[in-house]
Amino acid sequence: MVTFKDLPLSKELLDILEKQGFTIPTEIQAKAIPLLLSTKKIDFHGQAQTGTGKTLAFGIPLCEKIDRNKKNTQALIIAPTRELAVQIYESLEKIASHLGISMAVIYGGVSIDDQMRNLKRGAQIVVGTPGRINDHMRRKTLDLGKIETLILDEADIMLDMGFKEEIDEIMKHLPQDRQIWLFSATVKPGIAQIMKRHMKDTVSVRVSPSAVAASQTKQYYCIVPSRARVHAITRFIQSVGDFYGFIFCQTKILASEVADELTKSGYNVAALHGDLSQQQRNRVIRKFRKGETTILVATDVAARGIDIPDITHVINYSMPEDLESYVHRVGRTGRAGKEGIAITFINRAEQRIVKQVEKRFGAIIEPIDVPSAEDVIKKHLQEIPAYFEKDEKISEKVALEKLIERLSVEKLKQVTVRLLYDRFLSKLDLEEIPYTHVEEPDHEQFQEIFINRGSEDGITSEDIRTFVLQVSTVKPDQIQKIRVIKKRSFVRLSSDCSPDLVSALRGKKLHGQPVIVNVTCMVSDRSKEWRTREHDQRRGGGRRQRRRPPK
Ligand code: ADP
Ligand code: MG
């Protein structure tokens, strides 16, 4: 096995790596590092999936190449999002600072003045997002005239996010005599174009696309109708002791609603999406990183590339439309050889897509059922024997012992059961959602909305009916069915109801509290399948596009 010691690295750097616990390079590191150090300048393309250690693959050779006697900016690293820029900065800074190499990070959404000061102080390596780098170029606070190395990290995502012009502009300001190291998970046409226009004699290195398959992540798919998905999430959370994970949603609205619902069920949840300010996003990520929040409901773009060790689970609320995203999402867990679990919710008809993903990425994705109430109970009962073993010093022990001395065995049994129930089971949501395995209806046309109030909130179906009729334009005969369960209610409406219905109801007060409303499904005779509203809103004929075979 290759270790970092086998690579042509300085003693100084080897010591730093060892201190930080890095001993064995990942595949991309073992391939890229010797190459990037072998010549003075080399244009390079590294193709590797998320979580394969790309940051150090370029960071280590870059640190070796910086001329510490020259104080000017010698390297520029461009990353698609602020979070990624900060992450790269933080992991390289840990190495660079020990070598006396100065660094700065620049990204939008925060005051530009502090960044200007940092740049002025001198930064040999600058990390930034395309927009903000352009800003600083225009203000002449960032001089690219002496850049020796340009690194484009997650270049395909940058193109997806529409940063082509900004990148071209940056290229124009670089000296002729520079090297470009480009990293991407895929080779889309845009990537080939950058390579053709700006790079020469590029050496490409690719680590096996089956990196996902080889990673320690067990992948599952789970057939769940849209309306039962939040409930299914809670089941998966409850069926493991220490859930620490990402839940991925297609849209910002969905992400914040799923987060709201989980919060309402008592979980420690936050949402991460593009509508948050930079400060909010930083706070959310920081708390999640520290484990203060254990569940992060996120959209793809907001969470791309974010590296958080020890993530136990990734749940995909639905199969991502862009199959590449599947790899990025699943790559959030099973990082650096640790075991992880990825579960993707689909509807019955999407099993075909699962097959495509398996083939395309060489992965094995197995079916899994939503854990039943019994599964959850069983899991939690397992904790009880350890509880029995505990013998803690309790100051009121004597008083308590006196109290129970007089109890009969029968009574003791009764009390113990109740205490164990309170301690281990009472907080679980064991309500069976009756429709989890309901077959999809055939030719019926209807839509159904969901309201986050139920019988536990003192709501009756009559309350729901009155509420819907009062605050929207729905007519009494358009309400086909109302069901109220403990924490939720469902209203089935005929399909001719206005599509603006949901926004009309959203945030309106029911018994004095604003409600969360969402469309759980729309069924048309054309598709005969559950369709979530989110897809329809995003792209006119959503389904057909989504089904297009992968590029
Ligand atoms: P990528 O950019 O390919 O998505 P990162 O560079 O973010 O991957 O690395 C993913 C995780 O793996 C990080 O937590 C990083 O610290 C860890 N890591 C990287 N290289 C190694 C290594 N050689 N040994 C152990 N862990 C590593
Ligand atoms: Mg990365």
Give a concise summary.
With 551 residues, this protein is of the alpha/beta class. The protein folds into four domains: 4-207, Rossmann fold, CATH 3.40.50; 211-372, Rossmann fold, CATH 3.40.50; 376-425, no CATH class; 446-527, 2-Layer Sandwich (Alpha-Beta Plaits).
Highlighted features:
seven-stranded parallel β-sheet; Rossmann fold; binds magnesium ion; alpha/beta; 551 residues; binds adenosine-5'-diphosphate; single chain; 4 domains
Q: Could you explain how this protein is built, in words?
A:
41% of the residues lie in helices and 17% in strands. The chain has four domains: 4-207, P-loop containing nucleotide triphosphate hydrolases (Rossmann fold, 3-Layer(aba) Sandwich), CATH 3.40.50; 211-372, 3-Layer(aba) Sandwich (Rossmann fold); 376-425, no CATH class; 446-527, Alpha-Beta Plaits (2-Layer Sandwich). It has a seven-stranded parallel sheet with strand order 3-4-2-5-6-1-7, sandwiched between helices. Strands 10-11-9-12-13-8-14 form a seven-stranded parallel sheet, with helices on both faces. Strands 16-17-15-20 form a four-stranded antiparallel sheet. The protein has 24 helices and 20 strands. Strand 10 (269-272), helix 13 and strand 11 form a beta-alpha-beta unit. The chain is globular, with a radius of gyration of 27 Å. By secondary structure, it is an alpha/beta fold. Helix 2 packs parallel to helix 3 (54-65), helix 3 packs across helix 4 and helix 6 (130-138) packs across helix 8. It binds adenosine-5'-diphosphate and magnesium ion. Adenosine-5'-diphosphate (ADP) is lined by residues 22, 24-26, 29, 48, 50-56, 305, 307, 309, 335-336.
